[in-house]
Amino acid sequence: MNLSTASINNELVSVNITTYDRSRLLARCLDSVLRQTYEYLEINIVDDCSNDNTEEVVKGYQLADRRINYYRHKKNKGNAAARNTAFLKSSGIFTAFLDDDDEWIDDRKIEKQLDVFRSSNDPMLGVVCTGILRTDINGENRSEKANRPKNLVKTMLRGGLIHNSTAFLRSNVIRKVGCFDEKMPRGVDSEFFRRVVIKYGYHVHFMEDITCRYYENSPNRMTSKVSNRNLIAVRKANSYLLRKYFWTNLRYPSVFFYRMKTVVKTQTSIVLRRVLK
């Protein structure tokens, strides 16, 4: 990668990483960014007030690479707030996200996604995403390609479609839609991309490439634990989404009833767990 050429083209890419108590995994994540063939990057790491040696790990990397920036919250604010801090500190024309427990496995990921934007004549192209290699708790791998569904709006209303660690966006898209919703108790990424596509009408390019490894067995994955706290978060998130996308949900009754069913089911589970405790 020719840095001077990238500089002239003003195509700085911000790689935003948020982390909390995962210093052991963060090194793997960072190494995958530093292997990228596209070198004109700024790497913004937001530490959401970790209790481990995250700061020490990052400072070690900073000594070797001046592209790495480190920001630490004075108190734990949650995933959405950390993502927003990273974006507010960003300077790139484009933004790529990477979760601290995932890693990029295609060294040309950024280069390829940037080429999609360069070659596109679509002024509403806002997001380029890719497939993932999912690694389960037993170490088994399963490739999942990023395919455009027949009904993009309906699919995105129902659940997650774009994996955060594969997403590559124009930074002005993030600025226009208003960053991540800090009221969401969970499902922050899905709601953000849902808003980009449904409320603001941006287009998504689905690349066939598998560029990211997603670890299902990494510590602290919320979806790996069933507790009253997580059930309450699921109920609150679905209730919030019903209100936020009410009129759009009404256009797709199956999605509306899916959300309602989830709210009722999780509330029933919460009550039963309390009764049987």
TrEMBL record:
Q: Where is the Glycosyltransferase 2-like domain?
A: 14-139
**Which InterPro entries does this one have?**
Glyco_trans_2-like, Nucleotide-diphossugar_trans
Molecular function terms in GO for this entry?
hexosyltransferase activity
Q: Which Gene3D superfamilies match?
A: Spore Coat Polysaccharide Biosynthesis Protein SpsA, Chain A
Q: Which UniProt keywords apply?
A: Transferase
Query: What is the annotated signal peptide range for this record?
Result: none
Domain of life the protein comes from: Bacteria
**What is an example of a Pfam family matching this protein?**
Glycos_transf_2
Kindly give the CDD domains that the UniProt entry links to this protein.
Answer: Glyco_tranf_GTA_type (cd00761)
- What's the name of the protein? Glycosyltransferase family 2 protein
